[in-house]
Amino acid sequence: xxxxxxxxxxxxxxxxxxxxxxxxxxxxxxxxxxxxxxxxxxxxxxxxxxxxxxxxxxxxxxxxxxxxxxxxxxxxxxxxxxxxxxxxxxxxxxxxxxxxxxxxxxxxxxxxxxxxxxxxxxxxxxxxxxxxxxxxxxxxxxxxxxxxxxxxxxxxxxxxxxxxxxxxxxxxxxxxxxxxxxxxxxxxxxxxxxxxxxxxxx
Length: 202
Description:
Layout lengths: L6 H9 L4 H21 L8 E4 L5 H13 L4 E4 L13 H5 L10 H15 L5 E4 L5 H10 L3 E3 L2 H6 L2 H17 L12 H6 L6
Parallel strand pairs: 1-2, 2-3, 3-4
Helix pairs in contact: 3-5, 5-6, 6-8
């Protein structure tokens, strides 16, 4: 059991002379160590991906990426949902709903988060782009922002599994049209431009 959960360890935490950041870093290290140990006993190809929720606090993003790089995670998923409500939401009732927002309304915000994370990661591990991917064009935008992989969720509910083939065809057409051999050649191509723009409106 990790010392994050053990009640005796919690009292031990109080007796230590460490800052909140140091305590979180120690607990994070302990959790990752246990996960790595568990992975060694699995006879399957596994990896540890850290999911990064949407946030505008770049100081915290710097800290998260720094820890993720130092602890050698296998990748990051950026970014799944947000409790913020963009001003572009057309349905007033939707804007008032509780919980995380996902799907197309999150696209611009999550794509900016991919770019912001990409420039900080500096190629240390791949990023999974998620949030509003509902077409080949949207997938390509995520890739150019810095995603090496794409995750679909909400769009599958509305468009079905056929969306996967549609996206694959669109991306293949892009490769043929531009004379490229692999999408990896354009991963992060727009990251610097995106991070220099004003933050997408909320």
